[in-house]
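Researcher: Here's my situation. A collaborator sent me these components and asked whether they could plausibly form a single complex. I don't have experimental data yet, so a predicted model of the whole assembly would be a useful starting point for our discussion.
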Amino acid sequence: MIEHNGRRFALTLIVILMGSAAHAAASTLLNVSYDPTRELYEDYNKAFAAYWKGKTGDTVRVNQSHGGSGKQARSVIDGLEADVVTLALAYDIDALAIPGGLIPANWQTRLPDNSTPYTSTIVFLVRKGNPKNIHDWSDLVRPGVSVITPSPKTSGGARWNYLAAWAWALKQPGGNDVTAEAFVKKLYHNVPVLDSGARGATVTFVERGIGDALLAWENEAYLAVKELGPAKFDIVAPSLSIVAEPPVSIVDQNVDQHGTRKVAEEYLKYLYSKQGQEIAAKHFYRPRDPAVAARYATQFANIPQLVTIDAVFGGWARAQATHFADHGTFDRIYGQ
Amino acid sequence: MATPVAAVELKRPTPLRLPQRVLPGFGLTLGYTMVYLSLLVLIPLSAVFIRSLGLGWGHFWDVVTAPRVIASLRLSFGASLIAALINVIFGLNVAWVLVRYTFPFKRLVDAIVDLPFALPTAVAGIALTALYAPNGWLGIWLLSFGIKVAFTPLGIVVALTFIGLPFVVRTLQPVLEDLDKEVEQAAATLGASAVQAFARVVLPALWPALLTGFALSFARAVGEYGSVIFIAGNMPMKSEIAPLLIVTKLEQYDYAGATAIAVVMLVLSFALMLGINALQHWALVRHGER
């Protein structure tokens, strides 16, 4: 009697499982991202779900997780079952490739433009009317100017800030690694608080009223101006800045386990489509698509010279080792 | 059948046997205790030790003796000690008032003491920073005297004092309630002044509880992260706490380096707790003899 019931139960289970496999109507993706992309992906997920429904007839639900970029990468290494990662810098996605083996080492070549569908850059946010007359990097090291930027040891965005400052000093007449280090040291001498993340630094500058200039992601700066009212802050575009590339990747081990590889791949590819690019631009990320970029050109800061991390620093692995690892240039600045 | 055997056993002269227990189940509960403590405390902590072993002794020593690590450990333990001392003094005052006097809204005041327990620490940190920042209510006023609190080590002490307060008050309250007023009155009738009665009669009875409160408040403060990072300013060598350095190492995927600092904190905390326990034992014995 018991055995009979058990067999019937197993049979029912098989039927149910087969039934769901045949339909495969609904799938769920988890996008593990960093802090400032919350609003961007809320919009994008809706657009992608509609696109996917139209193309395949299937529904897809995308869940989001946000936090500091490094912390998010660590969660994925420790077992958070992300289908895709969209993080602040390649270094954090590289971390998934080496110790965890979650993705192949060549992940960044799988999608166009270094797997970065949109870019951003580093600008200055200053108090309304720019009372301290800050126009370029050189103004940030003047005595009496106070600069807010998070610690590059804990914040992805802060690493872009640091490298942008370094690149500017390097490109000055007679600039070399020694003058660049001296410049960055002087700059950090003017930093009164090192927050652990980009959002924390924004709060220190905006809510606590500390500092004359905030080094910020361009998209964060525009969002702050838009949300908090243009009456309080101005955006200053320096003469040179860095192209900040927040890349994306599927997490191979997880999508194969979940059977979501196809939809996950399409989710990332669609970021490069006209509609994906439009959504990125609306959230103040610089689109890669030239046509979309041209249409939104006026909403971005006009920075005469934009350099890349590959050209100036030889890629993330080298920049990380030289500047942010223990005993790197950042530690030297603080006398260690 | 079983009862007579037990009765016979009881009658057997057994000078070496442990004292008879009224309730059975010693073995079972001890077993549960050991398993429970192992699963919750010992196994995770030994994982920390094992992970730090990956460094090798030389590298381990380099990590934990780096000037920045030393500075942060000094700050973490120093600020926690100061905060715990402040809490002992003012916590005693609060507990005394709550036990010995009746006044309007006493229940409400009593409940307020528990708030630091209940509040998420990040909320506490943000609230304290908003208050003590140079543009905050208290910050503006303090700044006019040239005192900066938020984004300095002083701010760290403020946050740690905040989160540690309930530990002292809640350990002292039951002891104070047990302490009869008659004892103080007896001291007074025997010619002791108020100060003498407090120092020679009340305080000795409170020592063990005060030490417990101090230890709990201190231990809580050493490990605190959430509230401190908002108010600390996090400047290397100046206002960077040891738990932040651990997070920093993790952020660089340096698990071994992070656990090395954690091991040092564990060993230091454990040594301090042992010391406080010994002191407490000594205080109990000494008080018991009187």
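Model: Some features of this prediction you could bring to your collaborator: Chain A has 16 helices and eleven strands. Residues 2-116+246-272 of chain A form a domain with the D-Maltodextrin-Binding Protein; domain 2 fold (CATH 3.40.190.10).
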